[in-house]
Specification:
Length: about 775
């Protein structure tokens, strides 16, 4: 095969954030009024150019454009098709930047800075943000499109075309990426009861058709359309929607070839639909579902280009390239190589950018890892091996196989004591002594809380001063003693302020913690940490997931000392604050040589040790956050029960080693609970707090219909929006909650931790929350 016949390499999508988190800092500068929109857009353009050029230099031949977003690609699509809710007072045309951000984050009254007018509602009132939830089973959050039953659509953003032309001006021919129309509609929601958003497809398609025609005129020859909904359980109407949509789109610009991208699982019973569509190419996730390659290879039309998702786009482990080649060889051997592309399993949005930045990692561990840049190199090696023969990349294949062998036999991975302890788990370790009805009576007597008790989820603002002190301590510029003194001062101030405003149950504020998972992982064996391996969670919120490389245990208590200090400052109860085993698992990069269930059991035993130590120290309430519990739920119903069984087991294993008088809380955010409400009851937490503010308490309907028996704190304050909710707004949400819950069940709290907010927002918001709860108590007593 000649060089011109080299199998193409596609990346599908790459991280947007910049090697040094340039996008985060530019966004936050703009939001704070320190810079203008022009400066933000100039920086974003530079990030895109650097990304395209790097991919080109590494040998990628199908370079994506329009995978970049200032906030979220689903929000980009809503803006592109003119799906802007009426409260944002959009009058058509290009969606303004501040309208876009108001949809994502909400907003307050109008301000002006640097000559840039800020967006406001027509009547000057503050704006609520659109709902946010998890992107399939990842930790990436997307903005949920809001559609009316009489929704109209119009092409209101030329971003896909602009980015294609931007790359073209640099001499780089890209393959634009857009979110497919069926997945967009399936992810959307409507306020109209019983309305199926898929019914809007005939109205939406003309906008897509206009976009395809314009892209073709701009010079595009291929278009990647992402339709991950094809890996879900679909009904006949939804399958028919795919047939209708692509039947229409295929006739608009026939010369513009469509690569239909599916990922996060197998096509399964949607395979026949997918391969029957009039498309030029089909991308398959062969990491999550390697078994589908043989079936697709046998059934797909021979003129269909198969994009083989061979490298994991969601985890950080280096691939065994020889093993991959051996696995796909029988299928690829019967397929024209001109009809094959090599790609990651999905967009590499979900992995860090470049391993070369991690100079402090253990050398052995580093040799086992691959981030986006290294995964791109792996794709190129696989393409060369298939195009030119394995001899052309013999050294690279040997290095890959050697790394895999070294990892499998390393003594750093296995701990016989941990393995023995998990083998000894029994049923008694997963049950509370008494049922909730009895425990709640014991807890009510012990705690003496008022009706509608107020609390927060755990963290308080990580101010610039807090971050500066942590960084100075990390660099050795602030001594251990001085850092401890600083943290104690911040903690005491938080306790005193909570007492002052009248919160009923206090938290210590978590000023000593960097991240709700990383803080614990740093104190557990079997975890490794990075310095620059950031991935996007939502907007400008990035995280550095720990890497679970070996068996997990807890060498020493992790939170007891800080809880004891905080509790010594007040007579009110202070919650012990822990992250649950399922969330630690789901928000980490997990070893792939052991089942996730077994890894989670190891973490659960470590958290159990911490829970019992907190109780021995006097903690009356212990919150075990499981924000990511639903995140790990398999996308297909057939695989869910197994996951739910071991996830519940692990939470109970972590939480049930306490006495009846100890109240166990948990917190879950941005989850759809309808499908797992029975499982949430099986967790048997005494109190669960959940996000409900953006959904106007709709998420409580699942708890109501199932007659959920335990206590619930529905979020009445949206902490992901930079606005202060008024007392009347919180009171209205409480009224909606009371329509769904009994008064004896109801707690009052924000919908999530307050780490990412600033005190100027937090103080008045929590004062308003306490005021609303007190007013409700007074009305009840009148």
């Amino acid at each position: 095969m000649t060089v011109s016949q080299q199998i193409p390499v596609a990346t599908l999508g790459v991280p947007r954030i910049g090697r040094r988190r340039e996008l985060k800092f530019a966004l936050e500068s703009y939001w704070s009024g320190k810079s203008c929109g022009a400066e933000l857009l100039t920086m974003a353009k530079a990030l895109r150019a650097a990304s395209w050029e790097e991919q080109h230099d590494r040998g990628v031949s199908k370079i994506p454009s329009n995978d970049f977003s200032l906030y979220d690609h689903v929000l980009d699509t809503a803006a592109m098709v003119g799906a802007v809710p009426s409260r944002y007072a959009w009058n058509g045309g290009e969606v303004p930047l501040d309208t876009y951000f108001a949809m994502a984050r909400g907003g307050q009254a109008q301000t002006e800075h640097c000559g840039c007018a800020r967006h406001q509602h027509a009547d000057g009132h503050s704006l609520t943000a659109m709902e946010m939830t998890k992107w399939f089973d990842t930790n990436y959050h997307y903005i949920v499109p809001e559609l009316e039953d009489n929704q109209t659509f119009t092409l209101s953003s030329t971003k896909p075309i602009d980015h294609f032309l931007e790359a073209k001006a640099l001499g780089i021919h890209t393959r634009p990426v857009i979110l497919g129309p069926v997945t967009f509609l399936k992810l959307a929601k409507s306020r109209a009861e019983g309305f199926n958003t898929i019914a809007l497809l005939p109205r939406l398609l003309p906008v897509y058709e206009e976009l395809l025609r314009t892209l073709k005129l701009a010079g595009a020859d291929w278009l990647q359309i992402d339709e991950p909904a094809l890996v879900l359980d679909l009904n006949p109407n939804e399958r028919a929607a795919f047939e209708f949509a692509y039947g229409q789109l295929s006739t608009v610009a026939p010369e513009l070839k469509i690569m239909l991208a599916t990922y996060f699982g197998p096509l399964g019973d949607n395979l026949e639909t997918a391969i029957s569509l009039p498309i030029a190419g089909l991308h398959l996730d062969l990491v999550r579902a390697p078994e589908q390659l043989e079936t697709v290879g046998r059934l797909a039309p021979k003129d269909l280009v198969l994009s083989l998702g061979l490298i994991d786009g969601r985890n950080v482990w280096r691939a065994n390239l020889t093993a991959i080649l051996d696995r796909i060889k029988p299928v690829v051997a019967g397929w024209p190589l001109a009809r094959v592309e090599i790609a990651p399993s999905c967009s590499m949005l979900h992995v860090p950018i470049d391993l070369r930045m991690e100079t402090a990692l253990d050398a052995d561990l580093r040799s086992w890892l691959a981030f986006a840049a290294q995964k791109t190199d792996e794709l190129v090696i696989l393409a060369r091996a298939l195009s030119q023969g394995r001899g052309a990349v013999a050294d690279e294949l040997k290095a890959s196989a050697d790394a895999a062998a070294a990892r499998a036999t390393s003594s750093k991975i296995h701990d016989p004591l941990v393995e023995g302890r998990t083998a000894g788990i029994n049923g008694a370790m997963k049950q509370r002594t008494s049922a909730f009805a009895e425990r709640s009576r014991v807890q009510a007597r012990a705690l003496g809380l008022p009706r509608f008790p107020t609390t927060t989820i755990g963290s308080f603002p990580q101010t610039a001063e807090v971050r500066k002190a942590r960084a100075a301590h990390g660099r050795g510029q602030l001594s251990y003693v001085d850092y401890e003194t600083f943290l104690k001062k911040e903690t005491e101030a938080a306790i005193r302020w909570q007492e002052e405003i009248g919160l009923d149950v206090l938290v210590h504020g978590e000023f000593e913690r960097n991240d709700m998972v990383q803080y614990f992982a740093e104190q557990l064996s079997g975890f490794a940490f990075t310095e620059h391996a950031w991935v996007q969670s939502y907007g400008s919120r990035y995280v550095r997931p720990p890497i679970i490389f070996g068996d997990v245990s807890r060498p020493n208590p992790m939170t007891v000392r800080w809880w004891e200090f905080a509790q010594s400052l007040t007579q009110k109860p202070v919650k012990g604050m822990l992250t649950g085993p399922v969330t630690i698992l789901n928000w980490s990069f997990v070893r792939d040589d052991l089942s996730r269930a077994e890894v989670c059991r190891q973490i659960a035993l470590a958290i159990r040790d911490e829970v019992t130590d907190l109780e021995k120290s006097g903690a009356k309430m212990i919150q075990i956050d499981e924000a990511a519990f639903r995140e790990g739920l398999p996308l297909r119903k057939c695989g869910r029960q197994f996951y739910l069984d071991w996830a519940v087991e692990c939470f109970r294993l972590a939480s049930t080693g306490v006495q009846d008088a100890t109240q166990i809380h948990t917190h879950m955010c941005y989850s759809e609970f309808n499908e797992i409400i029975g499982v949430i009851a099986e967790l048997d937490a005494d109190v669960i707090s959940i996000e409900t503010s953006r959904s106007a308490m709709e998420l409580l309907d699942a708890f109501t219909s199932s007659k959920y028996p335990n206590e619930i704190g529905p979020g009445v304050y949206d902490i992901h929006s930079p606005r202060v909710p008024e007392v009347a707004e919180i009171s209205a949400l409480l009224s909606l909650a009371r329509e769904r819950l009994s008064d004896a069940q109801l707690w009052v709290n924000p919908d999530c931790g307050l780490k990412t907010r600033n005190w100027e927002e937090v103080r008045p918001s929590l004062v308003n929350m306490v005021t609303a709860a007190r007013a409700l108590r007074e009305r009840m007593q009148a």
